[in-house]
């Protein structure tokens, strides 16, 4: 068994902590850095609850060992809020549209759809459904999540003009 | 579940990977994107003593395109290949197939080489490698060898790679004829899940519209991607009319012995595979004629 120093940036802050080689990034975020916003569901890559943005791209944090994130940049759901700590337009739209019931999938859904809106500010319904294709929700039936993303896209656009 | 304990080393060069592998052949495993290996380790279906991380080895990353081939280094992310405009122009069937490999989030980590070595019967990249008879280059302290796709896959999840070998690149040949077309189809439970069955075809026509070269392959419904040479031979020289395609496909069902699981029984996979071959062939024909983009 090997233990490693993991130095990385999470939501703009630098951290350096030790981790056993077998510790996944999601466990490192939750149990070592105490960033419990990221959820862990299946632990083998199928549910998407653990999604984070890694060097600018969404990935599953249960499918990468923390030691492999050494030197990299991570954004978790905690990093999506506005500078003043209020909800982002996307988070607010999830709230407005009841896009969650138990909330287990929500951090992963937010990460996936945040990235979508960054890359494609006016996604079609099928593009939204494609972006959350790797994220399971057992409660909402996805409809309200799609509506939340549509509302957020509109709000962000209206605020820009 | 959590993985069992292991040691971790980060390789800095191909030489270092080969050295680590030779010192611990059988005990050490390469980790690339981790999109298959990490789940297997979490379920304790894989228990390597040591993981050799190849993600920082720059010589294993990148795409190189010539007139004759598309070369992809083993540790290139699937998303990078999918997003490459040059790959889509030179080898559109690979881009098409890649859009079915998992989800954005798994493609952002998963590598082309990892998928080939993993040799899942449903893997789209393996299917295209077999369709075009791609060449895999592998390295070890003993030297380099090139393995054709026809000899690379040995059975479900098993390749002919030795335990001390590292896949370094895959070379997909580009067919030179301008009247070349491809088709790719798959059926899965949800978009981007593993395929229950898949089929791909590539063919080229001569100036009179007759089939001059053809390759057809089935995945998912077979242990390894399988070329359907009987059908290929029957269609060579034909006009590829719907009737000729239908007749040439008659023997396919009896050639397949699909596995059954909770998602689909063997009969379903067999039937779907045939339908998919038909669709792939017709798309390929229309593209070769220039009537489908
Ligand atoms: C939710 C989900 C859905 C998926 N859906 C699909 C799908 O629809 N189609 C599909 O094809 N795949 C799918 N996958 C698998 C995915 O494509 C993986 O990326 C791929 O199978 C393995 O690539 P990797 O780079 O992650 O390899 P790893 O998981 O790191 O490694 C896989 C195996 O290959 C070996 N290996 C890796 N690189 C090398 C190398 N260069 N030389 C020698 N050995 C090497 C490793 O030792 C290991 O045994 C899915 C995965 C998930 C989690
Ligand atoms: S916990 Fe990572 S995908 Fe389910
Ligand atoms: S809100 Fe419960 S799983 Fe999505």
Quick structural overview:
Chain A has five helices and five strands; from the N terminus they run E-E-H-E-E-E-H-H-H-H. By secondary structure, chain A is an alpha+beta fold. In chain A, strands 2-1-5-3-4 form a five-stranded mixed β-sheet, with helices on both faces.
Helix content of chain A: 25-40%
**Mean of all residue-level pLDDT scores of chain B:** 96
Measured distance between first and last alpha carbons of chain B: 46 Å
Order of helices and strands of chain A: EEHEEEHHHH
Give the SSE string of chain B.
EHEHEEEHHHHHHEEHEEEEEEEHHHH
| Low-pLDDT ranges of chain B | none
Can you describe what's shown?
Chain A contains five helices and five strands; from the N terminus they run ββαβββαααα. Chain A is α+β, with helices and mostly antiparallel strands and 161 residues long. Chain A folds into two domains: 3-79, Ubiquitin-like (UB roll), CATH 3.10.20; 89-156, Orthogonal Bundle (DNA polymerase, domain 1). Chain A has a five-stranded mixed beta sheet, sandwiched between helices. Chain B folds into three domains: 7-53, Uridine Diphospho-n-acetylenolpyruvylglucosamine Reductase, domain 2 (2-Layer Sandwich); 61-173, Uridine Diphospho-n-acetylenolpyruvylglucosamine Reductase, domain 3 (2-Layer Sandwich); 181-289, CO dehydrogenase flavoprotein, C-terminal domain (Enolase-like, domain 1), CATH 3.30.390.50. Chain B contains 13 helices and 14 strands. In chain B, the strands form four sheets. Chain B has a five-stranded antiparallel beta sheet with strand order 4-5-10-6-7. A four-stranded antiparallel beta sheet of chain B has the order 11-12-13-14, with helices on both faces. Chain B has a three-stranded parallel beta sheet with strand order 1-3-2, with helices on one face. The A-B interface holds A 1-2, 4, 20-22, 24, 27, 43-45, 48, 51, 54, 57-60, 62-65, 67-68, 112, 115, 130-131, 133-134 and B 1-8, 31, 34-35, 38-39, 41-43, 51, 53, 55, 79, 102-106, 108-109, 190-192. Bound molecules: flavin-adenine dinucleotide (FAD) and FE2/S2 (inorganic) cluster (FES) (2 copies). The site of one FE2/S2 (inorganic) cluster (FES) has 12 residues of chain A, from loops. Residues 40-43, 45-50, 60, 62 of chain A line the site of one FE2/S2 (inorganic) cluster.
